[in-house]
Each structure stands twice: as C-alpha cells, then as structure tokens.
Amino acid sequence: MVDKSVPSLFEWMGGMPALERLFDTFYARVPNDPILAPVFAKMSPAHAKHVAAFVGEVFGGPRVYSEQFGGHPKMILHHVGRALTEEQRAQWMRLLLQCADEIGAPSDPEFRSAFVAYIEWGTRLAVINSQPGADVSGEAPMPKWGWGEAKGPYIPG
Ligand code: HEM
Predict the structure, then answer these.
(1) 86 within a domain of the structure (yes/no)
(2) InterPro entries per the record (predicted)?
(3) Tens digit of each residue's pLDDT (9 = 90 or more) over 105-144
C-alpha cells in the first residue's frame, strides 16, 4: 500500500512548475556551454518541456510523457546513435545541479540524495544507450524513482 503521508519526489519538488523552471533554466544555459552546445545544437523548442514531463513522470507525477510524447522507449530512441561521452554526461549533471540550486529546488539531504541518484542513473544509461551498436531492443518500462536507493548495479545484457 502507498504511504500517503510520504510525498512523491514530484510533489516535494513543487510539481510541474518547478520541473519546468529547472529544465527551462538548464536548456537556456546549454547554448553557452562549450561542452554541451554542440550536443544540443538541433534540439526542438519543446525539448525542455518534454524532458520536464519525462522526469516529472519518473518522480511520481502525471503520465504526460507516456500518454503524449511516446513514453520511455521514445526517450531512449532520442539518445540512440549519439555516442555521448563521459565528459558531456558529467557536464550535463554539473549544470543541472547548479540550476537546481538556482531555482531553489528543495535542499534537504533526503531529496538531494534521491535526485542525484536518479540523475546519475539516468545520465549513465543515456550514455550507454547512445553508443554505436547499443542493444535497445528490450522492454523499456517507464522508470519510477522514489526516496530509496537504486537497488542494484547496471548489468549489461
Ligand atoms: C536523466 C537523464 C536524461 C533524461 C531524463 C533525458 C531525457 C531526454 C528526453 C525526454 C529527450 C527527448 C526530448 C524531446 O522530445 O524533444 C531527450 C533527448 C536528447 N537528450 Fe537526453 N536525457 C537525459 C540525459 C542526457 C544526457 C546526459 C545527454 C548528453 C550529454 C542527453 C542528450 C540528449 C540529446 C542530444 C537529445 C536529442 C536532442 C535533439 O532533439 O536534438 N540526454 N533526452
């Protein structure tokens, strides 16, 4: 049974307005970032909203990405073939955490621990899925992230 006294990460963070503020801030910075600018040179004007919807759903918010933007398999496909590097991933993460501070995302250790864990996990999977020859043919249910830990290592295959 779901414990209603514990808010979802989505609720604790401030819902869609907070997520949109975070990703609008992040992607507005990207064109001025020498490491990330080339990666996102062709992103669509709706990119920030789509990523906000995706992360919102992962954090326990409404199923907007699944119902309107193609769900988790589509998100993975956006990364396929891009050969993302560790340097790009690390910079994505650094900039996002900086933006989280700037927009006033909750700073309690519990929230930040869960937030960083998801971002670490998600960005590392994005890099793996983006490598030439990566096998992304399997089932890809929408991840759900809560307050606990990631529960196990990545096992290829
Ligand atoms: C938790 C981590 C991540 C999440 C949740 C995420 C989510 C997404 C989503 C939802 C899209 C589709 C956006 C759309 O529909 O327009 C997307 C596209 C993309 N992502 Fe990610 N992403 C993550 C990490 C990364 C990282 C680390 C990089 C590179 C450093 C990256 C590079 C890209 C690129 C290049 C695209 C396509 C942009 C375009 O349309 O030109 N992503 N991502």
Answers:
(1) yes
(2) Globin-like_sf (IPR009050), Globin/Proto (IPR012292), Hemoglobin_trunc (IPR001486)
(3) 999 889 999 999 999 999 999 999 999 999 887 788 999 9
CA 139 from centre of chain: 19
Does 115 contact ligand 1 (Cβ within 6 A)? Answer: no
Question: Within a domain: residue 2?
Answer: no
Of all atoms in ligand 1, which is nearest to the CA of residue 121? Answer: 1
Amino acid at 1: M
Determine the Cα angle at 105 with ends 115 and 69, to 5°. Answer: 65
Global ipTM = 0.97
What length is written for the chain? 157
Pocket probe mutation, ligand 1, options 78, 80, 82, max atoms within 8 Å of Cβ: 78
Tens-digit pLDDT profile for residues 72-118: 999 999 999 999 999 999 999 999 999 999 999 999 889 999 999 99
Domain that holds residue 85: 10-130
With respect to residue 46, please indicate whether it lies within any of the assigned structural domains. Answer: yes
Asked whether residue 39 is domain-assigned, the answer is yes
Number of domains in the chain: 1
Ligand 1 pocket mutation pick from 47, 50, 85, 121 by most atoms within 8 angstroms of CB: 47
